[in-house]
Structure formats: structure tokens, C-alpha cells
Specification:
Helix content is 53%, strand content 0%. It is built from 13 helices and no strands. Helix 5 packs across helix 11 and helix 5 crosses helix 13. Bound molecules: fe (ii) ion. Pfam families: HD_5.
């Protein structure tokens, strides 16, 4: 089942080495030209050009590529800047705290990096809207879960990351989306990303809300433990914050402004 680790980590000439162009173009489908241009380095004079350091392995190339896609996703709206990287950091810390196998911790981190990749398939006018969404628009936004899974599915090396992307809005009581799964039907990868995602969404300023105090956010998450969120995951998140392993940097309200 865990093809990413098996196929990529254990083989320097494995899946990704043979298919990286396919991975690249598959993932780039749907990325707006503007988002990509914003990621390009400024042109260099010939004398400034230095040979690029060769990545250590195909797996490093894959991780660098995921990092680039993550930036493209978050840069579409100013208020999401850094969101996926923070969710990935929190998710990996939670997974480690829960004593999950290190290879799975890494899969959870990479899935969290890509958890909102499906938003690339949603129109700018909806994804960047500052006013409240209409019920129809909310249905469109909810589809980012299945759209994200559809983007990753053709790429064998990324298939193990799909549960976190597709199911991070499921709720233990069955009230989540896209499938209304219950408790044990929701994989741990998705339960962890759900808590990390909600913690970051509430502790950062958004066009529709001010950043909330982390203590208050943890209180809310704990109240919803066993109903919406996995209690053990919420407990791990609370412990990480209390121990100072998760630090929330105060952000200015201006950071929530929508760009473009
Ligand atoms: Fe999401």
C-alpha cells in the first residue's frame, strides 16, 4: 500500500527517476501561469550563474517539487501564504508525538503539504472571495478534496498521500465531506491533517475572521474531540503547544488581505 516509500526511497532509479517529467506536468496541470511566474527567480547575468547543486536522490527532487507546488497553491490568495507548510509542520509534529512510524510521519507531512492542491481547480472568483460564500460556492470549494485526489491519482509515487488530501474535511461523527465517513473509516493521516489544518486556520487572520488566541483554539478543538476531531490527535496538538514545540507567530491583520 505504501508505494511512495517502497518505490521512491528504496530505489535511486525507481519510479520517480523514470517518471519525473510525467509527475511534473501532471501536477502542473491547472496551475495558473501567473502563480508559476511568481515563483521564478529573477534573471541572472551570465557571471552570476552558478551550477545548481544536484539533489541527493530522486526522493529529494520529489520533495522539492512538492514544495514548489505547495507555494503555488498558497500564493493564489494572500491569506493562505505559508498555510500548507505550517499544516505540514504541525502534522509531522503530531504524528511524531503519537509515536507513528517515521516513514509514515514523512508521508503525513508530504500529504499535508499537498492537502489543498485541489484548490488549483477552483475558480479565482470563488477561492479569493472575501464575502461569505453562497451555498453553491461552498459546494464548489468543498470539491477541492476530490479534485486534489484526482490530481494525485495518476501518479503512482504520490498515491499514498491521497487519503490526507481527499479526507481531511471528514468528521468523526459523519458530518464531514466529501463522503460523510465515520470515526474508524477515516485514516489517521486525514485525522491528523484535519486538526493541524483547523488549528492553523483559526490562529491566522483570514478575510472573514481575525486570528484567534491559540489557547482558545485548543479549547474549541478539545470540545470537539470525539465529535469532529480525534481526541488523541487534539491531545497531541495541545501537548505540543504547551511544550513550546508549536509556536504561533502573531500575524498582522493586513496579512489576511486578499492579493490579486
Ligand atoms: Fe481543505
Amino acid at each position: 500500500m505504501h508505494a511512495l516509500a517502497a518505490a521512491v526511497v528504496s530505489s535511486t532509479s525507481g519510479v520517480f527517476a523514470g517518471a519525473h517529467f510525467g509527475v511534473a506536468w501532471g501536477l502542473l496541470a491547472g496551475v495558473s501561469a501567473g502563480a508559476l511566474v511568481a515563483l521564478l527567480p529573477r534573471p541572472r547575468k551570465p557571471e552570476e550563474v552558478v551550477p545548481a547543486a544536484a539533489p541527493d536522490s530522486s526522493f529529494d527532487v520529489l520533495k522539492e517539487f512538492i514544495g514548489m507546488i505547495t507555494k503555488a497553491v498558497d500564493e493564489r490568495t494572500g491569506y493562505l501564504r505559508g498555510h500548507s507548510e505550517r499544516v505540514a509542520r504541525y502534522s509531522a509534529l503530531i504524528a511524531h508525538e503519537l509515536r507513528i512510524d517515521p516513514a509514515e510521519v514523512e508521508r503525513i507531512r508530504l500529504s499535508a503539504m499537498l492537502h489543498d492542491i485541489g484548490t488549483l481547480g477552483i475558480d479565482d472568483s470563488v477561492i479569493s472571495k472575501s464575502a461569505s460564500l453562497t451555498p453553491e460556492e461552498f459546494e464548489i470549494v468543498k470539491a477541492h478534496t476530490v479534485k486534489g485526489a484526482a490530481i494525485l491519482r495518476p501518479i503512482d509515487a504520490l498515491n499514498d498521500l491521497i487519503p490526507g488530501v481527499e479526507l481531511h474535511h471528514e468528521s468523526l461523527d459523519g458530518s464531514g465531506y466529501p463522503y460523510g465517513l465515520h470515526r474508524d473509516e477515516i485514516p489517521m493521516m486525514a485525522r491528523i491533517i484535519a486538526v493541524a489544518d483547523s488549528f492553523d486556520a483559526m490562529t491566522t487572520p483570514r478575510p472573514y475572521q481575525s486570528a484567534m488566541d491559540p489557547d482558545y483554539v485548543l479549547e474549541v478543538l478539545n470540545r470537539l474531540g470525539g465529535i469532529r476531531y480525534d481526541e488523541n490527535v487534539v491531545a497531541a496538538m495541545s501537548m505540543l503547544y504547551l511544550n513550546g514545540k508549536v509556536v504561533v507567530e502573531p500575524r498582522r491583520a493586513a496579512d489576511a488581505r486578499i492579493s490579486g
